[in-house]
Amino acid sequence: xxxxxxxxxxxxxxxxxxxxxxxxxxxxxxxxxxxxxxxxxxxxxxxxxxxxxxxxxxxxxxxxxxxxxxxxxxxxxxxxxxxxxxxxxxxxxxxxxxxxxxxxxxxxxxxxxxxxxxxxxxxxxxxxxxxxxxxxxxxxxxxxxxxxxxxxxxxxxxxxxxxxxxxxxxxxxxxxxxxxxxxxxxxxxxxxxxxxxxxxxxxxxxxxxxxxxxxxxxxxxxxxxxxxxxxxxxxxxxxxxxxxxxxxxxxxxxxxxxxxxxxxxxxxxxxxxxxxxxxxxxxxxxxxxxxxxxxxxxxxxxxxxxxxxxxxxxxxxxxxxxxxxxxxxxxxxxxxxxxxxxxxxxxxxxxxxxxxxxxxxxxxxxxxxxxxxxxxxxxxxxxxxxxxxxxxxxxxxxxxx
Length: 401
Known about the structure:
Elements: E1 3-10, E2 15-21, H1 25-34, E3 37-44, H2 61-76, H3 81-91, H4 95-109, H5 114-119, H6 127-139, H7 142-199, H8 205-219, H9 221-240, H10 242-252, H11 256-280, H12 284-294, H13 298-312, H14 317-321, H15 329-341, H16 344-400
Helix pairs in contact: 2-3, 2-7, 3-4, 6-7, 6-11, 7-8, 7-11, 7-16, 8-9, 8-16, 11-12, 11-16, 12-13, 15-16
């Protein structure tokens, strides 16, 4: 059945909007009337069952994190779940998230479990989120489960923010360099090319290359903007293919400086998530399968999928992971200790903290390496351009003498 975005008015005259699943508008009006509302207007969203499909709108990670925190606080204060969901829908800034939360609240009021209602929106609430909530519902510890999710999201947000912050400076420098270089090629080079042509000077290969590039960009400058937009699109499409993703992930594990950061980031994410799931009471095999779906690197994903099958057959996780050289030695050693002492979740949490600190340190080191590398790159480009343009002038002066 489709989902409808509607506006309705209660018998007291209060107006409300949201989304509702119905066969058609007549069915929608009948269902709303049973709940005490009179339908004013409705629009088919085009979404399939369980999803409100607006691909151009998204829900930010920060909004989901704030929702989890607020929901935990309200549940802990004794606020009923439907009421807490209603309040959460009123404080969120995202229109889509507001409608999704209203729909979840409506389903919970009808008797559906919160985890099942959340599972209808996998693009907003991942499998990790849903499974921890499901465990909390089953054990009567929903507040604790929300606390585990909150801590997981906070650490993930912190690591992600540090990585993004480290990349801002290099990105700005590279964009500025490309912008200045583009202006030089389309404005300055063509003028110098005319001067050289009038003087009938034999140009060295490097100068000819710069002039041809500048002339091409001056006449077909719009192609550059086309390439700027089309390249990320093609690159994204390539990464969606299994082979393209495998090649890219293999490269990130081979590049000297980047590989260390990739290993530590994936290890920290895997340890943190596994610790959260085990603490919430999710079985180990199920936890490994959930995490395999949340990791970005295909080699880590496959290692956990295969390890889950080995653990199912009775093998220890530390032994299963030892087959793969993408995990640091410390991970296997500490995991083995955790299995022997029965403190796997605590050991994993400490490991996650350690590797998150390592990621922060590696990020700072990467920034320190990028800055001089960028200076050398800019100096090399400027030097190449200057020599290419000045060399013919010196040749001309030498001929005059």
